[in-house]
């Protein structure tokens, strides 16, 4: 049984989520079933960056122990999300001559083209995380989705190359290795969440997935089924909480409770005379404060100001690829911060796009907890792992060698091509 277990580990700045899936044989062949999901508090991670390996290791170990007790199976390997705000992506092209004498393009030609595309000048302190094919050209025919089986002389590929800061990757992997876990691979958080949330139709039309975490906001933009842009911004839900704490002059733990229970990002929905009594929250949080009644309108204005700043930064990313207000399938929100009341309405107004909360579409989930927006990234990691599982990945350990990366690229290519 343990050989069929696939685990997704999402390490956030305030919480760690671990979702465990298992491949079972059903009437329609192999199926993925979610058998457990746990979460725990994070220590040693700030704004998506590991700042204490020892504390991070302890936090992961606590969640791992809880998960193994829950599912009754030892967890040896995990797919891990990375949410480092220093991540960057750029386009690169690779061109090769078709190898076969009859001109038919095979998988080897595709892999050689992708290898040629990844031969770009990467900064000394960065390393490549993903090499994702966007489109191919065969001779003079452009916008080819899948060139395998076609005939031609010259094969060209345009790829999106996602790079991460080497030191942060090493710190994160070291913290995980110290728990005794092996790492299958690192996956950018919004790419993982997209596996669970976005439909093929949405990716075809043009859609952005926005993962609103506690201290980072990450996004992935798709069009014509291809990933065309990704970014991680160093701002998130905890900045909203900090603003509430300053505006109401109250402790941060009380500000978080007030934000969750009475806050909204949509100012128009709140009446000027609407007031709420927070004295019960003050008692529950054991705060020595004389705050009793607050104006919901004032609270909404504080929250809305920071939410609009986040959306401004998101829209700047859309402008970089000329997609501001130009994504027909709109934006889909996941992450713990996505549960803020009025967020969807505020985004429709600010981003000028359709908007909705993300739900797990690509897998049948019976555990209610996994349906929460904050668990969707970890769930996506499990789905990502199930697609890649069984591909020829060399050995299953985390690799950064050229050969290992090319094998993973081949597995990724097989996974992302439309079926």
Q: How would you portray this structure in words?
A:
45% of the residues are buried. The protein is α+β, with helices and mostly antiparallel strands and 419 residues long. Residues 390-411 and 413-419 have low confidence and may be disordered. The longest helix is centred in the C-terminal third of the chain and has 25 residues, at 296-320. The two termini are 28 Å apart. The protein has helices spanning 53-71, 107-117, 166-177, 189-197, 200-205, 237-248, 252-262, 279-284, 296-320, 343-351, 376-388, 402-416, and strands at 5-11, 15-26, 29-41, 45-46, 49-50, 77-82, 88-97, 126-138, 141-144, 154-165, 182-188, 207-212, 217-223, 226-233, 275-277, 293-295, 331-334, 355-357. It has three domains: 2-85 and 166-197 and 361-416, Nucleotidyltransferase, domain 5; 88-165, Dna Ligase, domain 1 (2-Layer Sandwich); 233-356, Nucleotidyltransferase, domain 5 (2-Layer Sandwich), CATH 3.30.420. The strands form five sheets. A five-stranded mixed β-sheet has the order 3-2-1-6-11, sandwiched between helices. Strands 14-13-12-17-18 form a five-stranded mixed β-sheet, sandwiched between helices.
């Amino acid at each position: 049984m343990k050989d069929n277990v696939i685990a997704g580990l999402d390490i956030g700045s305030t919480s760690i989520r671990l979702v465990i899936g298992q491949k079972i044989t059903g009437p329609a062949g192999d199926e993925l079933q979610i058998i457990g999901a746990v979460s725990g508090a994070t220590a040693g991670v700030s704004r998506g960056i590991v700042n204490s390996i020892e504390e991070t290791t302890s936090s992961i170990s606590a969640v791992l122990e809880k998960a193994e007790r829950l599912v009754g199976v030892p967890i040896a390997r995990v797919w891990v999300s990375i949410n480092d705000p220093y991540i960057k992506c750029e386009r690169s092209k690779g061109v090769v001559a078709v190898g076969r004498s009859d001109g038919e393009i095979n998988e080897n030609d595709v892999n050689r083209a992708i290898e040629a595309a990844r031969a770009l000048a990467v900064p000394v302190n960065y390393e490549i995380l993903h090499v994702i094919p966007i489109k191919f050209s065969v001779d003079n025919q452009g916008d080819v989705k899948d060139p395998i089986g076609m005939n031609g002389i010259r094969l060209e590929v345009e790829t999106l190359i996602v790079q991460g800061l080497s030191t942060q990757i090493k710190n994160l992997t070291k913290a995980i290795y110290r728990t005794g876990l092996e790492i299958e691979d690192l996956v950018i958080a919004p790419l993982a969440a997209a596996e669970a949330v976005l439909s093929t139709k949405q990716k075809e039309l043009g859609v952005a997935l926005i993962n609103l975490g506690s201290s980072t906001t990450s996004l992935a933009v798709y069009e014509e089924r291809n990933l065309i842009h990704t970014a991680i911004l160093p701002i998130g839900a905890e900045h909203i909480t900090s603003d509430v704490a300053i505006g109401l002059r109250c402790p941060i733990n009380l500000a978080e409770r007030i934000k969750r229970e009475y806050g909204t990002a949509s100012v128009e929905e709140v009446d000027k005379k609407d007031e709420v009594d927070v004295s019960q929250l003050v008692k529950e949080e054991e705060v020595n404060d004389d705050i009793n009644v607050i104006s919901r309108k004032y609270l909404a204005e504080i929250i809305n100001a920071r939410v609009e700043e986040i959306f401004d930064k998101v829209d700047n990313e859309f402008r970089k690829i000329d997609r501001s207000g130009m994504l027909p399938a709109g934006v889909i929100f996941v992450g713990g911060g996505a549960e803020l009341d009025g967020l969807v309405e505020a985004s429709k107004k600010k981003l000028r796009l359709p908007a909705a909360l993300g739900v797990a579409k690509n897998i049948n989930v019976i555990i209610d907890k996994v349906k929460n927006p904050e668990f969707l990234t970890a769930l996506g990691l499990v789905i990502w792992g199930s697609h890649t599982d069984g591909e020829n990945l060399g050995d299953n350990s985390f690799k950064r060698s050229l050969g290992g990366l090319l094998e993973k690229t081949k597995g990724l290519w097989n996974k992302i091509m439309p079926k």
